[in-house]
Design a protein that fits this description.
The protein has one helix and 32 strands. By secondary structure, the chain is mainly beta. The protein is globular. The N terminus is likely disordered.
Amino acid sequence: MKKRTSMAMLLCVAFTMPTSADDWTQFRGAGGSGSDGTKVSSLPNSFTETTNVTWKAELPAKGVSSPIVVKDRVIVTASSGATQDRIFVLCYDGKSGKRLWKREYWATGRGYCHPTSANAAPTPASDGEFIYAFYSSNDLVCLDLDGNLKWFRGLTFDYPKAANDVGMSSSPIVSDGVVICQVENQGDSFVTGIDTATGKSLWRIDRKKDSNWASPAIVAGKGKRPTTVLLTDRGSVMGVDIKSGKELWKIDGGASSVSSTTVVGDTAYLAMDGTVALQFNDDSGKPNEAWKNSSLNSANASPVIHNGELFTLNASGAVTCCDAQSGTIKWKARTGRDRYWATPVASGGMLFTFDMGGSGRVLDLNDKGKTIHTYKFQDQSFLGTPAISNGAMYVRSNTHLIRISEK
C-alpha cells in the first residue's frame, strides 16, 4: 500500500527576520523565563472588568494555549467540534483588539482530550517572521504574519499511534531554522526536528512510551558548543544537538512531566527532584549542577526567572522566591487556593498569577510576595500563561482574549 504523505505544502524561504525585544514569541516568553526583564514595570498593579482592561475579544472556540506577540500582533490558537477536529489560528491587533485574520483547518490526528483541555493546548512559537502552531492532534501549521499558509504537517500520518488518554500539550520551540516538537505518549513516542523552510523532518529520536506534557527548551550555542535542545521526562533530562538530533548527554532523575524548563543565558532551571540549576560553561556541551533545592516544587506551573530571582508556584498556591544563582530561599507567600495551570509572569516589582477559578492576582515582589490586588473575572477560567509586550499583558481565558494595560 502506498504510504500517505504528511506534507500538505512546501515553502522555499531564504531567511527569517529577527524578533523584537518586545516580542513574546513562545510559551512563557524569551527562554521560557516568564519575565519581560524590566526593573520598573509599565503594567498596572490592579485591574477589573472596567479598569485597566483596554480590550476584550471573544474567541470563536476553546483552547488552553497561551498567546504570543510578534510585531504587535497577538497570536492565539483554538479548537472546536465534538471531537476537537477543527483547529484555528487567530491574529489580533495588539493595540486595538481588532481581529486581523482567522485561519481554520481540519485536524488530521486524534483531537480527543480531557474536558478541561482542548486540541489547542500547545502554545504556538514564532521566529519573528513565521508562526508555528502545534496541536494535540499532532498537526503543525506554518503561517506568515499575514496568515498565509506556507506548509502543514500532519505528524499522525507518519506516527498513527501518537496520542494519550487526556491529550497532548507540549509546546513547540524554534531556533536555528528548526522547529522542535516533543510528542511523548504511550504509543508512538518521539521528538522531531523540522526544517522551518520546508516543513520536512530533519531528524527524529524515539522516546520512552509514557505520557509527558513538558515542553522542550533551548540553550544557545557558544564556541564549540552546539545549540542544545533540552528534553525532560519523568526519569531524566537529555541534551540533543538541534541540527542533528544527536544525544550529547543525559542525566537521570525525577523530572516533572508537566512543568517545563526555564533557560536564562547559560543556565537552565528544571523541575527535577525539586528544582535544579544546570550551568553550561564550557565547550563540551555537558552541564554542571550549579545547585539543587528539593523544597522548590513547581507542580503544574514552570519556574519563573526575573531580575536574578527564581519563583515557583506549587499546587496549593504558595509562591517561593529564591536567589537564582545560589538556590537560597528568600521568602514564601500564599495566594488563593484555587487550582493553577498557568505559569505566573513577572514584570518590574510584580508577579501576576491567574487561576482556574477566574481570579487574577498581583504580588509585590518588593514586599515578600504580598498580594496587593485580587480580582475575580466573571464566568472565566484561566489555564494559559499570559504574555507581556510593549507595556501590556495579554491573558487568554476559556472564552476571551484580554488586554490589561494602563492605556
